[in-house]
Amino acid sequence: MDLKELTIQKTQTGLKNKSFSSVELVKSSLEQIKKENKDLNAFLTVCEKEALDQAEKIDTKIQRYYKDIKTLFLECPLLGMPVAIKDNFCTKDIKTTAGSKVLADYSPVYDATVVDKIKQAGAIIIGKTNLDAWAHGSSGENSDFGPTKNPFDRNFVPGGSSSGSAVAVASNMVLGAIGTDTGGSIRQPASFCNIVGLKPTYGRVSRYGVIAMASSLDTVGCFGKDVIDTALLLKIMAGHDDYDATTSILSVPDYPEEMKKEIKDLKIGLPKEYFTSGLDKEIKEKIEKVIKNFEKMGAKIIEISLPHTQYALAVYYIIQPSEVSSNLARYDGIRYGFDRSQFGDEAKRRIMLGTFTLSSGYYDAYYLKAMKVRTLIKKDFEEAFKKVDILLTPVSPSLPFKIGEKTQDPLKMYLSDIFTVTANLAGIPGLSLPAGLVDNLPVGFQLLGPQFSEEKLFQAAYQYKQNE
Amino acid sequence: MLKTKKQNSKLSQKEVEHVAKLANLTLNSSDLEKFQKQLSEILNYAEILKEVDIKDVEPTSQVTSLENITHIDKAEVSLTQKETLSGSKNTYNGLFKIKRVLDK
Which of A10, A143, A326, B11 could serve as a FRET partner for B21 with CA atoms 20 to 30 Å apart? Predict the structure, then answer.
């Protein structure tokens, strides 16, 4: 058997029909990892024994409750499914490094809320995936444990910071994966690896047990092979959590069901600031094709303006390092981990940048100013969503780039995030979807909606994929 | 796009050294040179914000609109002492062992 042929939905059917067992699924996942991981470097830790033990137990459970198999999968929709977790989520007794040497030997004593929820839903955690250390990066190259490679062309980056999670799904090592998105860290690697990636609304999914990067921007999201798998993963992960005071009490919709409802008179906005000369011509062509398809489906396309877009990246690269410097202050090597000499260059850069912009005499000029411009960026979106239902934009201004191409120039690397940071600043959801290949390298497009409009994004994406 | 002269003026090596000290980071001399250049470039890029009119604009520090979220003030079962110490390389008598903070 080959995970290549499967999605979460198909796997559910397969397990229900006894076409294969959970042990077979896990073995297939582990085989693929053994074959590919040495080169792709998607996983930092593989939980081989635990995963196989778990799969055996699940097969026994399926056998025992086969009479009520439907109920079993309603209660545990991910029963027996191999999934991967980005290595910045705490996993009880499983090494959690955040991609940094500082935490090279750290094993948490508790599970992140999302990890717990995924486990409760029956998923089998195959392992922990590689990332730019502390989730700082847009290419996967900042990992202290070596870069992850793009399965489409191994000389190219897979995007970051959730590099390993995206590659694990794209190279058929797992059926779904969990990641974090602070400035594009799910959407950009999803786009570079030709899969679906969702950054939910800030507060939709609990951040408890996630190694914090920038607390007002951090969101927890997921990768799937298609829209419906991604919607199912969100349904399982979302909801209020007593351990994260920023989570919303709004009820969680049944995304996989709701997304099948037809939306009529969909109004899609194209923010003109995202289609300027900075956008790669070949990407632009792909996105224009996507727009045409939406038009054919009956959607109304409206050009709109988000006038403060050009300031978003500067705002992000002030607010984010400021919060990073505060969050990384706790790593002192006393209670766990190694001391601060183990921080890599990118973490050092962000810690120093943040320490500087928060320091007395500079706070007003940098941090406070950035927070005020953030208000204007957020308002731009609020105004736009009075006119249109959702927005359609590119995910990345360029195609996946070569490994090593931008590592010596941090500012150039930061500019890769130009179309993704805005959603984090405004706290809105963004869904990254495949738009096709250029020279065998994937291109993605992004749907953005108002806060808590994930349902609408899934609906639009699902309809698009039905009509593509 | 960016002028070299302007970049270098953003942060001096001394300032980088000072910031590193505040953040408890140790840098060698080649680090200092590299970070001075890179951090200056980034701060220089942020100059673009000077053009934005922020008169009467409130800052956004969070996007949830939630306020005063509290939980019931009741003790819950927490980690055991053994679990809490399990990640530390230096413990003594069931406590974290740290370097002396105050002089004798």
Answer: A143
d(CA A236, CA A370): 35
User: B31: nearest CA in chain A?
Assistant: A345
Of A136, A125, A248, A139, which is closest to residue A178 (Cα–Cα)?
Answer: A125
Bond preceding residue B88 cis, omega within 30 of 0? no
Looking at residue A181, its pLDDT comes to 98
Listing DSSP states for A84-98 in one string gives EEETTB-BTTB---T
The one-letter amino acid code at A449 reads G
**Beta-carbon separation of B96 and A334 below 8 A:** yes
Residues of B in contact with A427 (CB under 8 A): 63-64
Q: Percentage helix, strand, coil, to 5, in chain B?
A: 45, 5, 55
Predicted confidence (pLDDT) per residue in A254-269, tens digit? 999 999 998 889 999 9
Residues shown for chain A: 468
Q: List the catalytic residue out of A21, A185, A396, A432.
A: A185
**Please, what are the domains in chain A?**
3-467 (3.90.1300.10)
The structure tokens listed for B55 are 């008169």
All structural domains of chain B: 4-51 (1.10.20)
pLDDT digits (tens, 9 = 90+) for A92-151: 999 999 999 999 999 999 999 999 999 999 999 999 999 999 999 999 999 999 999 999
pLDDT tens readout for residues A420-442: 999 999 999 999 999 999 999 99
Q: Which residues of A touch B96 (CB under 8 A)?
A: 334-335
> B21: which 2 tokens?
């000290």
